[in-house]
Amino acid sequence: MKATKTNSSISYLLIGSGRVARHMGHYLNLLNISFESWDRSQDPHALARKVSSATHILLAISDGALAGFYRQHLAGHEKVVVQFSGAHHFEGMISAHPLMTFGPALYDLDFYKKIHFTLTGVSSLEEALPGIPNSSSVIEPSQKALYHSYCVLGGNFVTLLVGKMLSGFSEMKIPAEAAQVYVEKVLANTFADPAKALTGPLVRKDVETVNANLQALKNDPYQEIYQAFLKTYWPEYPRK
Question: pTM of the predicted model, to two decimals?
Answer without folding.
Answer: 0.91
